[in-house]
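Lecture 7 notes: from sequence to structure.

We start with a single chain of 344 residues. Read the sequence below before looking at the structure.
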Amino acid sequence: MEEGFKMAIVYYSIFEEPFEIYGLDEDSYPQLLRMPHEVAKALNQHIEIVLNRCTSGGRVRFKTNSPKIYIKVKTKVYGTDIHPIGNTTMNRHGFDMYLDKPNSHEFFGTFTFGFNDRYEYVAVREVGGGEKELTINMPLVGAVESLEIGLEEGSTLSRHTPYKHQKPIVYYGSSITQGECVSRPGKLYSHVISRKYDTNFKCLGLSGSCKAEMPITEYMAGLDMSAFVCDYDHNSPTVEYLKETHYRLYETIRAKNPDVPYFMITRPDYHYSHEENLKRCVIMESYIRAYTGGDRNVYFIDGTAFFNGMELRECTFEGCHPTDEGHKKMADYIGDVIAKVLNL
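Now the structure, written as tokens:
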């Protein structure tokens, strides 16, 4: 317990009841990882040491009447090759918070700090009186080594209302899916879709490392999910590599999830190069092959429709990674397709 200015603050570990953690691998607690360590280790050292520790998609949810919310946290950035120019302090180390109501989600502010490789800090946000259901989103490209939530002494604390759609949508993709170059966690397109349709989700965006290797393919196939969103395109080193792995990924996921809707997405920055644009054709071929093979629960989402014309420049940081505006447009388009299929 610590003394605040006027009121004693009680800190709780996020691993304690009634806090609920979403989007991370619960078998890895108290480490906050997105997949089991052995899966990450089987892929490559960058994923094992850096990307698996990034908490993209990680959330903590709870209900309280505390007029102020405190967080006591230790964060760290492992590695320096994750687009440092395009990522804000909020993206690396910051948290944002939403007030969840039955039919809306109100952005309630951020917990922000300096731009260093590692820090320990305490931050506070005023949220007013009365019972409130809150979601705190974790950083997208930084690691959270420990997190405690502080409430004013004597405040109530209970479980958040469950997601209306509790079984998660799994998103697999590149740095775009992980959320590089957005201003804060809640702006990531999977977060936006989650709030709009009250859906749980898991983000497996891997910056520079989304290559559909068998260890992660088999891991994802074993997840209990409501839908699989395959945003795999960017990180395949060649067109031929994508041909070898894209349909194999679909087959592996489908073998263990015969009734799960499967969404195949192509890149939004389709003008990047002729060779890269050919990957769009590979993904379309995967879709046609699956559909003509009898799968009526597979769907093609064309990334060329996300940003029209000159919007590609306005909606991306550098012609590739979408900004907040870009992720909003992606969420609107992808979310509408998912919602129709899942009857959200």
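The first helix runs from residue 37 to 43. Keep this in mind for problem set 3.
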